[in-house]
Amino acid sequence: MSRLVIVSNRVADLTNTAQAGGLAVGVGDSLRQRGGVWLGWDGQRLKYEEPPEPRIRKMGPVSLATIPLTQQDYDEYYLGFSNSVLWPLFHYRLDLVDYKSEFLEGYRRVNGKFADALMTILQPDDVIWIHDYHLIPLASELRRRGCTQRMGFFLHIPFPPPEILAAVPRHKWLVECLLDFDVIGFQTNTDLGNLQHYVADQLGCEMSGNVIRTGEREVISGCFPIGIDVDAFSQMAQRPNEEVQIETHRRRVLRRKQIIGVDRLDYTKGLPDRLRAFERLLELYPEHVKNVALIQIATPTREEVEAYADIRRELEALSGAINGRYADFNWTPVRYMYRTVPRDALAALFRVSQVGFVTPLRDGMNLVAKEYVAAQSMDDPGVLVLSKFAGAAEELREALIVNPYDSDDMARALNRALTMSLEERQERQQALIDRIREKDANWWLKSFMDALENRNPVPA
Ligand SMILES: O=P(O)(O)OC[C@H]1O[C@H](O[C@H]2O[C@H](CO)[C@@H](O)[C@H](O)[C@H]2O)[C@H](O)[C@@H](O)[C@@H]1O
Ligand SMILES: O=c1ccn([C@@H]2O[C@H](COP(=O)(O)OP(=O)(O)O)[C@@H](O)[C@H]2O)c(=O)[nH]1
Q: What NCBIfam families does the record tag this protein with (predicted)?
């Protein structure tokens, strides 16, 4: 078996459960099983340039290779082109795109830095798996430096339809860069279809099933929905957690139910709309007043980008307004927390929450949806209420699927979830758990590697 070299903007500390972000979680779960090298940014922002050799740390079967960036790199490549241009645009938010030409220059420069660092550690038989929108030009940069190893790319976020993609400056160049990979993977069939339309219509490529012909080369494209380690998460959810147990006991005595939301505080996650839907639940079904609370964990993320500061202000004003209107001496309807919570504590919280409320306006996958399912007990499972615009909705069809722009629709689904019979909850839970087990973290790694190492085309 060849050595696997994974590259992503960030690497995760594999021994630490207190980190937010699905890429780190999904890649971590997969790499722990196969072993290999994981290269990424170390989170530092230096005032000066460093030589390209990465710093290597061994963590069990995985070698973490990290490089620093400069403050200018961080501003132009990470906050700039990646998170102020590609992120909003790929999530269909043209209104939030903030493009400056230096962002594109920084993006190319940093992809060059990643390529220089990789060239110092690559071995001839390595296979390279590159992740996410920060690193689309990396295969081209590596090929230019003489790298001939197999290279795959996985996009964790949505890939937009051609007419939206056309709004990104140099969109043709970006897609041509993608075609320098041997395999290109997406979370959903919708994303895959959007790329295939673009390459056929704009670049004149021929398609044969999921294989894209470009000049002399054949590129495999496919849909590989990311999964989680279901057993590990389920076990975490069952481990005793004193704080959660005390709070759950209190709620049981008072016969109160709990709805839970957990997200990075990102405008793509639909958090204000979610709070408005909860308020609508209290208006339309007053029997839930004092009997249900919404706990919303909103994790800090990309705070230097203005759109993120705006969404935080909006959310905090809204949760204050709902509490001001409804709270009583012994009941707070919205419990809002702006912090990162360790994943094992989240698992315990999911298990004792009667509803998992996951309503992004657009999301690549959303691992929280899968984690909520994995955390439930079969004896008394909760209900997942899931946005139709989360990638996870393509698989998790037995959730209550809602339109995150329609607060009445979400309020009705919440009411249905809170009053659903045990029998129906168990039927839905069984179907959902089967689905997340079928396509788990191991399946994701294996199916992508099968396409990359064995050049097995993915069935259309
Ligand atoms: O690294 P950050 O800028 O702090 O952001 C965290 C990660 O957010 C995004 O996660 C995506 O990947 C998940 C796993 O595939 C998926 O479930 C989710 O829908 C995506 O939004 C981003 O794509 C990562 O690169 C970031 O590390
Ligand atoms: O305070 C937090 C918030 C989130 N997460 C984890 O971060 C991941 C979020 O992934 P998801 O795909 O839902 O969204 P993303 O943040 O990647 O867009 C999940 O594994 C969560 O359990 C966490 O450990 N602590």
A: trehalose_OtsA (TIGR02400)
How remote is the CA of residue 150 from the centroid of ligand 1, in Å? 24
How far is the centre of ligand 1, averaged over its atoms, from the C-alpha of 23 (Å)? 5
**157 and 272 inside one domain:** no
Same domain, 124 and 56: yes
Please give the pLDDT value at position 19. 61
Tell me, yes or no, whether 264 lies in a domain. yes
pLDDT tens figures, 418-445: 999 999 999 999 999 999 999 999 999 9
ipTM of the prediction = 0.97
Q: Are residues 52 and 197 in the same domain?
A: yes
Structural domain containing residue 211: 4-227+441-454
Choose one of 23, 264, 303, 443 to mutate for the ligand 1 pocket test, by most ligand atoms within 8 angstroms of C-beta.
23
Range list of H helices, 145-270: 162-165, 171-178, 189-203, 230-238, 242-254
Minimum-distance ligand 1 atom for the alpha carbon of 78: 3
Judge if the beta carbon of residue 368 lies within 6 A of ligand 2.
yes
Atom of ligand 2 nearest to the CA of 340: 1
Residues with Cβ < 8 Å from 455, sequence gap 6 or more? 182, 220
pTM of the model: 0.97
